[in-house]
Structures are given as C-alpha cells and as structure tokens.
Amino acid sequence: MFDFLQQKVNETISISEEEFEYAKTLFLPKKLRKRRFLFEEGEPCIYTTFVEKGLLRSYTIDEKGSEHILQFAMQGWWSGDLYSFLTGEPSEYNIEALEDSELLLITKESWDQLLKEVPAFERYFRILIQNNLIATQRRLMGTFSATAEERYQKMLKEFPDVIQRVPLHMIASYLGVTRETLSRIRSQITSGS
C-alpha cells in the first residue's frame, strides 16, 4: 500500500530504503468508502493524508448552503487542513471520498517525529507546501482575472482525469461558477465557438 507514496517521495527527494521503511511505521493505512468523510467542518484535522488510490474533495458550505470546493485530491496527492492540523483548531472544511479510497494518514505527533528522524522529509514537505502555496496563489489570481471559460480550459489541461471522474456540479463549484454557466461553456467548446 505504500508503493505510490514511495514513488512520489522519490520524485521529490532522495531517501534510503531504510529511511522509507521507518517512515512507513508512522503512517496509518485507511480505506474510506465513497461518500464517507475523513473529517467534517468543526472537527480538528488530526491527520494529514496521502491518497494512494481514489479521489477526495475538500469543501466548505457557506451560510446560504452553497458548496465551495477548495481541492480535489487524487492518487499521489496530499489532503487535509494544514492550519487545523498544525494548530489543533477545528477545521472549516469537510473532506469526503468521491470514490472508494485507500489513504495513508499521519498524525501531527508522528509527522513531527518523521521530520526529526528523517530530515529529508522536512525538505520533502517544505517543497510540497511551497508548491501548494504557489498553486493556491495562481488559482486565486485566476479567479480574479481569468474568465470562467479560461479557468475551465486550464482545468481541462492540468487535470483531465478529474474532469472525467467528478460530477459537473462539483467542477462548477471548484471553478466558482454555476452549473448552467459550466454547461454553456462546455457546449461552446464542443461546438467550436
């Protein structure tokens, strides 16, 4: 169950087999069925989670009852609420499985131990966090400056697998548009307009 994690770690940093074997002892494997929650808004995020297989979504619901999707996390991605994970404060997000998923969970205590015992993992997580910050800033700027069609085209290019696996209303939520707007955009793209 750790094969994909090892592959992703080795794409970013170099660690020995012995170091990775130690790291494996700190993770908790978990299977999460489709439509089940890893955690819900108001609960602390006690794990940061690596997706070995499957697909998760992180989202919040506003006071009007509208969903706002922050992230889709597919195989090879990490998911969680970093602020809640680091501080122990209740999360503002829900994380739900969109498919039956196989996950690797690590607690804050085990994460700290991993960073102390295998310093290369500190570099690994720093790189992940800095890449996430860059992606978040770009997504935010795209929300301000790109049209809905440009945001959809970018998603098609960068995450074609997600487009195939996620219902349209969730893609619309992620893009910050209505389902009707997304349907119109998809129709225009299909007709070549």
Commentary on this structure:
- The radius of gyration is 18 Å and the shape is globular.
- It folds into two domains: 143 residues, Jelly Rolls (Sandwich); 48 residues.
- It starts with a helix and ends with a helix.
- It is built from nine helices and eight strands.
- The chain has 193 residues and is an alpha+beta fold.
- The protein has a four-stranded antiparallel beta sheet. The protein has a four-stranded antiparallel beta sheet with strand order 2-7-4-5.
- Strand 4 and strand 5 form a beta hairpin.
- The model has no long low-confidence stretch (mean pLDDT 94).
Described by the principal axes of the CA atoms, the overall outline is globular
Instruction: Give the ordered list of helices and strands.
Output: HHEEEEEEHEEHHHHHH
How many distinct domains?
Answer: 2
CATH superfamily caption of the largest domain = Jelly Rolls
Rg for CA atoms:
18 Å
Largest sheet at a glance? 4 strands, antiparallel
**Structural class of the helices, strands and pairings?**
alpha+beta
Topology:
Elements: H1 3-12, H2 17-24, E1 28-32, E2 37-39, E3 47-53, E4 55-61, E5 67-74, E6 78-79, H3 82-87, E7 94-97, E8 101-107, H4 108-117, H5 119-145, H6 148-158, H7 160-165, H8 168-175, H9 179-191
Antiparallel strand pairs: 1-8, 2-7, 3-6, 3-8, 4-5, 4-7
